[in-house]
Amino acid sequence: MRSTSASSAPGLQGDLLGDAPETGQPEGDSAPASTDFPAKPQHRGPDRRVAVLLPLPLREAYDYRVPEGMELVPGDFVEVPLGPRRVIGVVWGSGAGALESGRLKAVVRRFDVPPMTEVGRRFVEWVAAYTMTPPGFVLRMAVSVPSALEPPKPMLAYLRKPDAEPPPGFKMTDPRKRILALLEDGPPRTPAELAEEAGCGVTVVRGLAEAGLLEPVMLQPTRLGRPDWRRPGPSLSPDQRAAADDLRKRVASGSYSTVLLDGVTGSGKTEVYYEAISAALEQGKQALVLLPEIALSAQWLDRFARRFGAPPAEWHSELTGAQRRDTWRAVSKGEVPVVVGARSALFLPYPDLGVIIVDEEHDSAYKQEEGAIYHARDMAVARAHLGGLPIALVSATPSLETKVNADSHRYARIELPARHGGAVLPDVELVDLRRDRPPARHWLAPSLRQALTDTLAGGEQAMLFLNRRGYAPLTLCRACGHRMQCPNCTAWLVEHRLARKLQCHHCGLQQPLPHACPECGEEGTMAACGPGVERIAEEVAELFPEARAAIMASDTLHGPRAIQEMVESIGRHELDIIIGTQVMAKGHHFPMLTLVGVVDADLGLNGGDLRAAERTYQLLHQVAGRAGRGERPGRVMLQTFMPEHPVMQALAAGDRDGFYQLEAEMRLEAGMPPFGRLAALIVSGEDPTLVERVAMALGRAAPRSETVHVLGPAPAPLALLRGRHRRRLLLKAPRSTQVQPLIAEWLDKVEIPPAIRVQIDVDPYSFL
Ligand code: ADP
Ligand code: ZN
Fold this sequence. Notes:
Elements: E1 49-53, E2 62-65, E3 77-82, E4 85-94, E5 109-110, H1 118-131, H2 135-142, E6 155-160, H3 174-182, H4 191-198, H5 202-210, E7 214-219, H6 238-253, E8 257-263, H7 269-282, E9 286-290, H8 298-308, E10 313-315, H9 321-332, E11 338-341, E12 353-359, E13 367-368, E14 374-375, H10 376-387, E15 390-395, H11 400-407, E16 412-416, E17 427-432, H12 446-457, E18 461-465, E19 474-477, E20 494-496, E21 501-503, E22 510-512, E23 526-529, H13 533-543, E24 549-552, H14 559-571, E25 577-580, E26 593-598, H15 612-624, E27 635-640, H16 646-653, H17 656-670, E28 676-685, H18 688-701, E29 709-721, E30 724-734, H19 739-748, E31 757-762
Helix pairs in contact: 1-2, 1-10, 3-4, 4-5, 6-7, 15-16, 16-17
């Protein structure tokens, strides 16, 4: 069996950070011509074979024989044998292998769902080639719900039967207890879902059902709404109108373009891109909206439903198995007009996508760091180009990559300069912690304390922002200096006082707080160092015992519903002071919130990676944007030890473009993205000597020239992660260089033992 089109490289000029990605298709041409395979079934006669790409980490499509009486077209979903197993796959092209057809295994069956589109298949190939991931591995993201290929059958699910007692002799084992506990609250679930959640076999669920402890119910298919584009939106301001008309025109043209929708927070960007969605629906096409953390965006969903009369289909990790199946299937049949999702929503089987919106396009949550390593914003641009459709990148603080592309007119730009309804942007003040010092073991400076007092006295709300969960980031022994470290990771254990635990934020390890130092055995000497949100909450309680305060962090709020409840309760002014991590920074709109205090504005600058300043600026700008969104003006106070730092200066002066200018000059000078290219290799394994040896061999074999440099190998900052030792190499090249062939050649020169993993990260965002 041999590869066919899966390994033929799609145009890899892929200059995502530069020109429109070269997706091997003339600009503006909306439907790429079918390549090597006719759209109508053919291949009659004795030797009918197809190449089938399997959703497994395979580089190549395999040939299969098409049995008598079966007709297949490219993109068809099929079941094929693979060794002793049967797996699903996608017909990728005509089989071209040398293997005699008599020896080929036959396709078992074709699934009755619309075939994967040509654009969808080329997108899989393109992402695979760009990110240097096996195409089958990328395909797996596109066929993530195999059960969606089967016709929906009424599904049996279970609820807990109220007051049912176990029959005599029925033993309440731990797995049985876990399942009953799971059913205490929450929706009915299928036996398979229950088994997976409880970490046991399906037979355990059946056993409980037979014992009469479960109530069977038939699950109805997930109801997906039909947003109505005819519903009128609000009347737009002249700026908003112009922006909306521009987007509508792009959608109507049905051709590729990338536009940056650049506007301050509260300027109505969301209202404006709703118009683009409406235009796509009007044409009978679909719209895809990517959000960085969809599970956190209940406010967004409510607002969408108010505007269009029905909610969009959601796509993210919090969906149940049944929701995923029904949504995938409905999307493939063109029954879902609007999908809002996290990055994986890019890989859904849209038959006719009309527009893509990437909201908060600068957000680093778009970078997937595990498995296939890709940047969803960049892949979305490629998807738009392949599909011949417009894409809007939306932000108040665009990524430097996008900003530079807009400045050089590779991307169009639409600006919304003012907040809607004349709300003014908040005043940003710097609190110089060198002078304005908090008392010992406290973290709020006198001026911020005063501002909190005034805000509460005025009957308004305040938010304190610290991007650090838990109570204290470090616990050490005052007697011997021993620091509590994770045994599996290069990281300190974080104290979570509410949960009475020490936790590793990288691998999830938890252990009780030690009473005595594990090193010297002294008792009562373990001390918390530095603040997390829990510690700030303690200080707030001490300063303002009357105030209603709450912590808003991903580990104190469980799931989207809890976040939504908290957001609503803040909106109803049931809280006076909110102490939050970045969960809090995103998109929420609180009219009574007038003071934002940033406890440690320098926090993000310490890592010192390439984008530290940019990211800090974006995050703090977004946090600041929470203040003064209603009628009352807002005030933002940034506590810093570096008031002269360009990030702080730019925030205080409201000089966003000045900051970008300076940042761009520094990157240009250093040949760093977006003006140069980076790719990282991360070598990892359990045996440190072997990891070191492979990393050194890669270092020796590295491509080097006048313009291409390889730094490392060096121990990764997270030199130990989840028990694996890690070394990094970083390739740096001019922007005009195609790094993928260089890396492919490089890796070919070095033997990689099976115990070692080498991850390739093209355009790295994390340097840990
Ligand atoms: P952004 O996405 O730029 O932060 P939004 O679209 O969320 O801005 O708008 C901010 C607030 O102003 C929202 O509550 C929105 O409903 C309101 N708003 C924006 N434009 C209009 C308009 N033309 N008419 C009425 N309300 C508007
Ligand atoms: Zn750890």
